[in-house]
Amino acid sequence: MQRNTLLTSILAGALLLATAAPAAELGDIAVRSYIGQPLAADIELVQLAPDEVSALQVRLAQQDVYRGANITMNPALGSLHMTVVRRDGRQFLHLTTTRAIDAEYVHLFLELSAAGRQDVRAATVWLQADPNPAPPPLPAPTAAQAALLARAERAVQAAAPAPAQAPAS
Questions:
Q1: Are 75 and 139 in contact (CB under 8 A)?
Q2: Phi, psi of 147 (to 5 degrees)
Q3: Does residue 161 form part of some domain?
Q4: Hey, is 29 helix, strand or coil?
Q5: DSSP β-ladder status, 117-126 and 105-114
Q6: Does residue 29 belong to any structural domain of this protein?
Q7: Could you list the residue ranges forming a coiled coil in this record (predicted)?
């Protein structure tokens, strides 16, 4: 009899787990920035239950989650701003930072909360080098180069003809 009770309990627990609504998951990531620039990316939110769509709240997980995963949080994530947006009938998490990301990737641990449930999801955003980087700034001229340029400018001015005087009337 105890064996049947145990088996019934296990089956009931499995049935409850199987019928539980799936938690929101992170889908494809579209990155719109490059290494050395502030982050701009969209992460698709998939498997959202109907009750989660309007109530979904997302925030960056606490530092202890990063420590528990033995991952250092990128300092630029201190300026992370997230908004849930709807586009083409799908939900996206739009991510931006005001600080540049100077790494090839950023690990994100995101806390998703809705309908009384809270889950942490992990994502890695991969960045590439800018294919069209801005040209590097010209170096400042040295003192010797500046003196040489000044002499050249004076020589050009001295060699230029004097402006013609208007005839007196």
A1: no
A2: -65, -40
A3: no
A4: strand
A5: antiparallel
A6: yes
A7: none
CATH number, domain with residue 39 = 2.60.40
Looking at every residue in the chain, the average pLDDT score rounds to 82
Identity of the amino acid at 28 = D
The pLDDT of residue 13 is above 60: no
Q: In terms of residue numbers, what domain contains 110?
A: 21-126
132 within a domain of the structure (yes/no): no
Whether 94 is in a domain gets the answer yes
Contact between 84 and 23 (Cβ < 8 Å):
no
| Burial of 112 per CB tally in 10 Å (0-12, 13-18, 19+) | buried
For the ranges 91-95, 133-137, 154-158, the one whose mean pLDDT is highest: 91-95
The burial of 106, by beta-carbon neighbours within 10 Å (0-12 exposed, 13-18 middle, 19 or more buried), is given as: buried
Distance CA 48, CA 145 (A): 65
Tell me: the pLDDT tens digits for 47-87?
877 767 778 889 999 999 999 999 999 999 999 999 998 88
How far is the C-alpha of 82 from the C-alpha of 162, rounded, in Å? 65
Beta strands in 115-168, from DSSP E residues, in sequence order:
117-126
CA 32, CA 6: separation in Å to the nearest integer?
53
